[in-house]
Amino acid sequence: MPKEATYRKIIHIDMDAFYASVEQRDFPEYKGKPLVVGGMPEGRGGVVATASYEARKFGIHSAMPSKTAQRLCPEAIFIYPRFDAYKVVSNHIREIFHRYTDIIEPLSLDEAYLDVTHDKQGIGYAMDIAKAIKQAIKEELNLTASAGVSINKFVAKIASDMNKPDGLTFIGPSRIEAFMEKLSVEKFFGVGKVTAAKMKLMNIHTGGDLKKLSETEIFRHFGKPGKFYYQIVRGIDNRPVQAHRETKSVSVEDTYQEDLITKKEMLSELEILSQRLSERLQRAQLKGRTITVKFKFHDFSIMTRSHSESLLINDKENIIQTVNVILENAPLEDKKVRLLGIGISNFELAAEKKKLDNGIQLKLF
């Protein structure tokens, strides 16, 4: 563990059932009822984006097929998400964060890390800051958030999930190693179903079991992520809260009520997605070279196909031209598509800016 003088003060804020809570706030008729935000269960159905706590009592959770959710709770109310409304609320929450620190790392619309080691108001105590943030969210937005407080990102995130909803949990330096030893391996950052299954075959069920392996052994079994596991089980996580993360990709996607069967149907929807993607890129002043199209099929399997251009692009015409090349070459015979997505990556904005800063004149496209 680091010396006390080097401890950071990290808060992880996670809104409680965010989309569903906004809907229950804005539409009182949903309050106290099992509410599912996501695709409709009729026809081909969709996927749950989030569920109210009343719905979660039936075992409904995010990423679950809507038809499954309906079977678990026939009386559940299904509604489409209103992302514009959620974005407005998210911006207000972000403004509350900025009252205390500018070192904020958003993970999504409803959660973020905050480094309050040197808070703007000079409060000093991370728990007091977390309480103030939670209170402001409740008073100004009539919503609840859960907060985890610790000396690093990993433990703060785990802590925020411990006493939901409306929770506030502090795990201090003296408790971290004992806490990590009791933590199930599924809770470890980067441990998915496959890795967890491999660990259990090795009789590794908790952080304490994982701690018995030497650094060499853990690296041999799990590769590069093993080095992180070795450190985090000892309470060491030196990842900083990144206030300005470089954008590596931008994407848009849509889930459809009826399966798309022909490439003509898919191209029509991809044109709409291309327009949305182009608008996002131009607002952010980003251009990229690599276009990726995502296909999710009726059986929930996923296929992605990518194509790189020689020039940087962000306009609809060039995006859809590249998408069309991908679509023509994609093996889609006898496939029923339920979701389409388009992403763009391989940005060169940072490299170009560096050249400009060094006085090199670039040719503009």
From TrEMBL:
Q: Name one GO cellular component term.
A: cytosol
Question: Where found?
Answer: Cytoplasm
Which free-text remark accompanies the cofactor? Answer: Binds 2 magnesium ions per subunit.
Xref: PROSITE patterns: UMUC
Name its GO BP terms in alphabetical order: DNA repair; DNA-templated DNA replication; error-prone translesion synthesis; SOS response
Q: Which cofactor does it need?
A: Mg(2+)
Q: Where is the UmuC domain?
A: 10-192
Q: Which SUPFAM superfamilies match?
A: DNA/RNA polymerases (SSF56672), Lesion bypass DNA polymerase (Y-family), little finger domain (SSF100879)
Indicate the annotated site residue(s) for Substrate discrimination: 19
- Example of a GO MF term: magnesium ion binding
- UniProt keyword annotations, A-Z: Cytoplasm, DNA damage, DNA repair, DNA replication, DNA-binding, DNA-directed DNA polymerase, Magnesium, Metal-binding, Mutator protein, Nucleotidyltransferase, Transferase
Query: EC number(s) for this protein?
Result: 2.7.7.7
- According to the UniProt record, what class of enzyme is this? transferase
Major localisation: cytoplasm
Q: Which reaction does it catalyse?
A: DNA(n) + a 2'-deoxyribonucleoside 5'-triphosphate = DNA(n+1) + diphosphate
Chain residues that bind Mg(2+): 14, 110
The residues responsible for catalysis, as annotated, are 111
Subunit organization: Monomer.
- Primary role: Poorly processive, error-prone DNA polymerase involved in untargeted mutagenesis. Copies undamaged DNA at stalled replication forks, which arise in vivo from mismatched or misaligned primer ends. These misaligned primers can be extended by PolIV. Exhibits no 3'-5' exonuclease (proofreading) activity. May be involved in translesional synthesis, in conjunction with the beta clamp from PolIII.
The protein's matches in PANTHER family, at most eight in alphabetical order, are given as:
DNA POLYMERASE KAPPA, DNA REPAIR POLYMERASE UMUC / TRANSFERASE FAMILY MEMBER
Similarity field: Belongs to the DNA polymerase type-Y family.
The name under which this protein is listed is DNA polymerase IV
The taxonomic lineage of its organism, from the top, reads: Bacteria, Pseudomonadati, Bacteroidota, Chitinophagia, Chitinophagales
